[in-house]
Amino acid sequence: MAVFLLVAVGLLVAPVCFAYDKDSEEGERPERLIEMAAEYPGVEVPAEEDVTMDLIFHNKGRSDENVSVRVVSVPDGWEARVKTYRYTVTGVHVAGGDDKTLTFEAEPGEGVKPGSYAFRIEAQTVDQTVTVSVTKKVEGEKKESKGVKLNTSYPVLQGPSDAKFEFSLEVDSKLGEDAVFDLFAQGPEDWDVNFKPAYEDKYISSLRLKANQSKTVAVEVKPAMFAEAGEYPLTVRVSSGDAKGEAELQVVLTGTYKLDAGTPSGLLSLDARQGKPANMSVYVKNTGSATNHDIKFMSFKPENWKVEFKPEKLAALEAGDLKQVEVTITPHEEALVGDYSVGLDVQGEKASKTLEFRVSVRASTAWGWIGIGIIVGVIAGLIALFRWLGRR
Predict the structure, then answer these.
(1) Percentage helix, strand, coil, to 5, in the chain?
(2) Which fold has domain 148-253?
(3) Residue 244 · residue 282 · CB < 8 Å
(4) What predicted TM-score, i.e. pTM, was given to this entire model?
(5) Where do the H-state alpha helices sit in the chain?
(6) 259-366 shares the fold of 148-253
(7) Over 80: is that where the pLDDT of 8 sits?
(8) Which residue among 104, 142, 271, 376 sits deepest, i.e. has the most Cβ atoms within 10 Å of its Cβ?
């Protein structure tokens, strides 16, 4: 048998205050228009577990609005409130064209039995009612939460395997006296999990709270060095005597994104002629643990030079794979003889690698033959001149 909880969320206001301007141009926002929506139209929760969901306010008008919010009907044995991450609130300011979110919380007392319950929340805005249903289950394991409550807006974080993850966790004391709460965390093997005060770098293992006070702590998670891509659950607990609370967190690893590039010989130099293409081979290797998609190539070259790649891009490169790319560099026809720098940039999905080559431009062989011809002509002319002078 399950407990069914019905939450009705209403928005009440004089309609004239938020009337749409019929003479406004198509696509233009009205002067005043507020809408409210519940995060979930229906949820199921285990027995004796609290109900938490977001109330989202959309200001689709041009004017900033102050919206008052209150819980006007609460069943016997329940406690309910509307709050932010820390405080119970009675109103919210929503800028024109912006959204704001508040949290609706309902806690069942010890005597609450399976059945159907209804709440009503009213806000001073456009007439609108949102109905949210919560089914409270009798079956299943009970989660112990007595005297302290843990809240987090983002229980699941995702990123590469070599990143650090930081959860924001609100510890809310329900005790009527000051207390010191011990902090515990259980994660995968070889993972580092530590607690820190909000906006500070030092690690802590306990937290002092005054009566009915709440504080935010950070849970820093560093995956093991060779952790593979996948989903990893973590459990966070706080306790002070009989007061205990628990929260389930999760890290989703997408793998590491790394690229390496170079030449088979290891040399980053090339000889070229004016206006003539010079070729070289470059390898691209995925040294990470995740597939790199849409790998593109870019060049940084002197003016009027040409740099071409074959293939022009790689659709995907699996972890550990290596592919060869042919690069053709053509100096400008009027490039002066000397050394030039050409940069090659390999840009992957979430990784990149840059190579810098030294290109030595040599004079064209045609000019060499012309020079030799000139020298031979000069020598022949001198010999002829000496002979003519000798006869005289």
Answers:
(1) 10, 55, 40
(2) Immunoglobulin-like (2.60.40)
(3) no
(4) 0.47
(5) 365-391
(6) yes
(7) no
(8) 104
Please give the single-letter amino acid code of residue 255: G
Q: What is the pLDDT of residue 158?
A: 93
CA distances from 117 to 3, 108, 233, 263 (A): 8, 11, 33, 71
**In 301-337, which ranges are E strands?**
306-310, 313-317, 322-330
The CB density around residue 334, as the number of other CB atoms within 10 Å, is 8
CA distances from 228 to 65, 166, 176 (A): 48, 19, 45
Query: Which string of b and e fits 289-327 if b means at least 16 CB within 10 Å?
Result: bbbbeebebebebeeebebebeeeebeebebeeeeebeb
Question: How large is the greatest C-alpha to C-alpha distance in the chain, in angstroms?
Answer: 138
The pLDDT value given to residue 121: 81
pLDDT at residue 10 tops 50? no
Distance in angstroms between the alpha carbons of the first and the last residue of the chain: 135
Phi, psi of 28 (to 5 degrees): -80, 140
User: CATH homologous superfamily of domain 259-366?
Assistant: Immunoglobulins (2.60.40.10)
Residue 338 has pLDDT above 50, yes or no: yes
Residue 144: pLDDT band with limits 50, 70, 90? very low
d(CA 242, CA 346): 58
For the stretch 225-244, pLDDT in tens is 888 889 999 999 999 988 89
Q: Residue holding tokens 């902090």?
A: 183
Q: Using only C-alpha atoms, what is the Rg of the chain? A: 36
Reduced to 3 states (helix: H, G, I; strand: E, B; else coil), residue 115 is coil
Element (DSSP H or E) covering residue 83: strand 78-83
> What is the reported pLDDT for 12?
39
Where is average pLDDT lowest: 34-38, 99-103, 292-296?
A: 34-38
Q: Residue 284's closest CA among 245, 316, 255?
A: 316
Tokens of 216: 């935010």
User: Is 2-137 CATH 2.60.40.10?
Assistant: yes
Side-chain-side CA neighbours of residue 81 (13 Å): 11
* Mean pLDDT computed over every residue of the chain: 82
User: Do the Cβ atoms of 156 and 246 come closer than 8 Å?
Assistant: no
Domain range annotation of the chain: 2-137, 148-253, 259-366
Contact status, residue 193 vs residue 217, Cβ threshold 8 Å? no
| 367 three-state secondary structure | helix
